[in-house]
Amino acid sequence: MNLETALENMNQLSTLSFWESLRLKLMNAELWMGLFWNIVQILFIIVVAKALVRLINTVIDRWMNRSPKALRVNERRAKTVGSLIHNAVKYTINFIAILMVLEQLGFNLGPVLAGAGVLGLAIGFGAQNLVKDVISGFFIIFEDQFGVGDQVSISNFSGVVEEIGLRITKLRSWTGELHIIPNGTIKEVTNYSTHNSVAVVDIGIAYEENLEHVTKVLEDILSEIFKESQDIVKPPEILGVQNLGPSEVVLRIIAETKPMSHYAVARKLRAKIKEGFDREGIEIPYPKMVTFHRNEESKGV
Where does this protein reside within or beyond the cell (predicted)? Predict the structure, then answer.
């Protein structure tokens, strides 16, 4: 027997022994039972983690809804803090669940956690934007710059704040778009929901109208609107003549309203004033066109 034949026989024996050992392992009942229980335990961990997140979030929501006065914060602030706690709970429970799954898969968590610390330190130097987002998010919440449910303008986006996290802020515009803004990019914020708004309405009347009579009619209309509307916090005021236009005298009316209610109040004021002016016969000027028809006799002159 030469050397090549001997090597070929050894390769055949090693191949047979490999497949034989693999067959024996696959036929090992203890292996399959252990794998089955590992899968069951992993699925159990995932289900329990999701259920625990939902349960804790439900408890937090009920507690925050009942305790704003006890915590000496308003409802808006309570929603913001609740949103932050929801994020923290979700991240914490999911992280613990991942560690438990890794343990079931046979990983030694000691080196994994030590490696995660070193890796986190390395990532911290490279992920400066992420760190900046988290720090900015903390100060946004700590300083109460805006909260969940507030109407704000951030950069080129305007809408209602749906969620505030440590890293991102979600903003829903009135047309339905959802804007996700990293907290680190938020430089300037205009918050329309922290203070009362002011509705400004300009009304034009004809030069021929009596200003005293028009003012008296407006006072009666505004008094009626103030009694009907819950969004107006102070009686509306007539500031007086705002402008003398080519064909109209413009009167300005202002009304202090609840936050972000000035658009609806302004529309209601215009409608009620139009009805009152029609009832009193007060003319609101509008463009008119006068047409002269020349007859045949005038053409010959």
Answer: Cell membrane
